C-alpha cells in the first residue's frame, strides 16, 4: 500500500505523528474489516491482528493484509475452534494462548491492543521501558477507567490536540475489548458503532454508562452478562 503499515507510522522514529482524527479513522477502518470477516456467511477469524498487518493507502484508509493465519470460525452449535496457538505475542487473547480455543472475541482482544497502541503511541511489548511497563496492556489497563489519569495514557505526540470526551470513550472501548472474560467483550459490529461518532472528536451518549464511567456493552445486542 502507498503509505505502508500502521506500525511504521506509529513507531518509526522519523515518522510524522498521526493526528487524533487519522488514528480514529484507521481504528474504524480496521474494525470494519474485522466485522466484515466475522459477519460473513461463513465467519472468519483473522487470528493475527496487529499494527504491521494494517496497511494504509494514500488517504490513510486502513486495509487488512496477510491472511495467512486466518481460520474459519465455529459453525452450528460449536462455541470455538480448537487450533494450534499461533499469532504474535502481545496481541493474542489470553484464553487462546492458554487453551488454543479460538473465537471471534479473540480478534476483539487483539483489536483492543491495537487501539491502545493508537491511543498511547506505545508498542504492545516494549522491553526498552521499565519492567512494569514492558506489557502495554498490563501497564495501561488500571488507568483506562479513570478519567483523571487520561493524560498519563494518551500519546504525548498529540500535544493535547484531541477531544477529552472522545479519548475517554475510546479508552472505555479498549477496556472492554481487553476483558479477561471473552463473553464480556463487544462484538466487532458494536466496536464499529462506538467508533463512528468519534471520528469528529466527540461522540453521542449512545452507550449506557455505569457508575464507574464506562459504557456497559453487556446490554447491547449479542452480548451476555457473564
Automatic annotation (TrEMBL):
One of its GO terms (molecular function) is ATP binding. InterPro entries: Kinase-like_dom_sf, Plant_Ser_Thr_Prot_Kinase, Prot_kinase_dom, Ser/Thr_kinase_AS. PROSITE patterns: PROTEIN_KINASE_DOM, PROTEIN_KINASE_ST. Residues 1-199 form the Protein kinase domain. PANTHER family: OS01G0588500 PROTEIN-RELATED. This is Protein kinase domain-containing protein. The lineage of its organism: Eukaryota, Viridiplantae, Streptophyta, Embryophyta, Tracheophyta.
